[in-house]
Amino acid sequence: MRVLGFAVLVAALAALPFVTDALGQAAWLALATRILIYGIAAASLNFILGYGGMVSFGHAAFFGIGGYVVGILFTHHASGEPLFGVIPGTDQMLVTLPVAILVAGLFAAAIGALSLRTGGVQFIMITLAFAQMLFFLFVSLKAYGGEDGIIIRRTNALPGLNMRDKATLYWVVLTIAVLFFLGLRRLINSSFGAVISGIRQNERRMAALGIPAYRYKLAAFVLSGMGAGLAGALMANFLRFASPDMMHWTKSGELMIMVILGGVGTLFGPFLGAGVFLMLETFLASWSEHWPLALGLILLVVVLGTRGGIEALIRRLSALGRGGGQ
Amino acid sequence: MILVLEQILNGLQYGVMLFLLAAGLTLIFGIMGVINLAHGSLYMVGAYAGTWVAAETGSFWLGLPAALAAAAVTGLAIEAAVVRRLYARDHLDQVLATFALILTFNQLIVIGFGRQPVFTMLPEAFAGSIELIPGLHYPPYRLLIIAAGLLVAVGLYFLINRTRIGMLVRAGSTNREMVRALGVDIRLLYTVVFGLGALLAGLAGYMAGPILAVQVGMGEQILLATFVVVVIGGVGSIRGAFVAGIVLGIVDTCLRAFLPGLLRQVMAGPEADALGIGISSMGIYLLMALVLLIRPKGLFAAGS
């Protein structure tokens, strides 16, 4: 039943370009692409935040690193000069995405190894500190555009596909998102996921069971950073642009809002949260220039009024509906 | 030498501003356990309210009570409407709700005052510059800020160490449940502390007016530095906030002033400037990371 529901959802999402095409609403397709990409980033954050209880306020750093890997490799591809004199640039997505994931993972390993020595609010702040350091580092890197960022003239190539076509790019992103989601579900349901969840609930008890909490938390942090890096690389391909703004602290805040809005520690929640947040932002922005006011008030009502985000709200409503039917 | 002295004074001035904000933030966090991202909004509200009154009346000094009152009233309103509901929630809900408050306040200010920065006049008696020691000309207004900040620090010291409210605050930051169990009206204490924190933020905001541009988003710029101060000093410690604020203010100011010049000795001008600005912006975060790696709970953490 659940498998069927998932298949129907994926089929509906796959058909979306035909619908937007028929309606002549190209902007909706762009919005859907962004939602999928942010959904990947938010779900990555949720993996450590919701399941592992590690509140990272610097996850945009890995998102930005993913974007910069694509941007920097493209710059060197366009100029023909290898990076550091040895690494050739490339515009092949089959190369850039894995490299982005790997580099984001390396940064996550370094930042996580240091940050996980603290906990609680100190952890929130130290992850923020590292992200800010990277933000200012890229702002000062004049070779890669500094504050203005890198323009990527062409979306990365995939053999046999016309990546200039917006619908093709959307299908590529959708495919990656589906694979990512299936992988994430396996990860959460694995024994590794169970340990991570156990550490959140009671770290001391897990230690008493002989489980090295620090190592498991670090592994989860790295995986989460890799997911955010993947999303960043996709975003750089979609926008054909990478800039320090991708790793600004407000971006980390937005990712966290998507997670909280959708439902902390749920599988689908972050995707829902990303969807609701971006749609609210888009529609409110087209409605009034004072949209942040409305967005702020709506968020306030949601956080004060619902416990557990939209996912919990839907579940409660559907339980109510079932209860009424019986 | 003169230049170094001048920058240290500038750093001191920035440091006491950070302390004014960090004091409120650390009280609110240490006692109530609320992460208030909207603390910067109170700073902004104070700056705008004071500047507006000063412009309307033509008097800098009339702007001051207006800034304090506006920030305090806004703070009390936020506490009653939003923050009070967040005491029992986890940090995530607090982050989201106060982030939403930032969006709301920024847009309200845009609606009320527009997007252009507003400039505050200097009080006449403090315009110009005075010669502190031969060769060191310094704006007296900055000295006024330093004096005001130090005065507040002393006042807070007496409030916290010598009064009944202070005793409860100290007890509350160590063990909240125990204070509640002793039958203290903790809700009233929370409200008083929040109002006090807002008042200090408003003071900082108004005093910053003639030096920095009063503009939408000014709160967020200083908020992160303030959080760094709170964390370095140790959450809940006023003493820590004071020491960390001053140190951070001086380190940040001196890095910004001298690093590009030092780098220019070893590399080309524009690159040196860009890199120098970049590294000096990273400076306070680097400092925080170092402190937390050595003392994970900050320098003066309660109970350590």
From TrEMBL, chain A:
Localisation per UniProt entry: Cell membrane
Principal location class: membrane
Transmembrane segments: 48-74, 94-116, 122-144, 169-188, 218-243, 255-279, 291-310
Keywords: Cell membrane, Membrane, Transmembrane, Transmembrane helix
Membrane topology per record: Multi-pass membrane protein
An annotated Gene Ontology molecular function: branched-chain amino acid transmembrane transporter activity
Any Pfam family matching the protein: BPD_transp_2
Keyword Ligase set for record: no
UniProt cross-references to InterPro entries, sorted A to Z: ABC_transp_permease (IPR001851), LivM-like (IPR043428)
GO terms under cellular component: plasma membrane
Name recorded for this polypeptide: Inner-membrane translocator
UniProtKB/TrEMBL annotation, chain B:
Protein's cellular compartments: Cell membrane
Protein name as catalogued: Inner-membrane translocator
Membrane topology according to the record: Multi-pass membrane protein
TM spans (from-to): 12-38, 58-83, 95-114, 141-160, 188-208, 214-235, 242-263, 275-294
Cellular component annotations (GO), alphabetically ordered: plasma membrane
Family: Belongs to the binding-protein-dependent transport system permease family. LivHM subfamily.
One example of a Gene Ontology biological process annotation: amino acid transport
Keyword hit for Membrane: yes
Molecular function, one GO term: transmembrane transporter activity
InterPro entries assigned: ABC_transp_permease, BCAA_transport_permease
UniProt cross-references to Pfam families, sorted A to Z: BPD_transp_2 (PF02653)
Main location: membrane
Alphabetized UniProt keyword annotations: Amino-acid transport, Cell membrane, Membrane, Transmembrane, Transmembrane helix, Transport
